[in-house]
Amino acid sequence: MRYKVSGKQIDIGESLQTHVETELSAVLEKYAGRPTDAQVVFSRHAHEYVCETIVHLSTGLTCQAKAHATEIYMSFDGCLEKMDKQLRRYKRRLKDHHRDRSEPVELMGASSYILASEQVDSEVEPDSLQPIIVAEMETKIPSLSVGEAVMQMELAGSPVLVFRSDTKDGLNVVYRRDDGNIGWIEP
Question: Full-prediction pTM beyond 0.70?
Answer without folding.
Answer: no
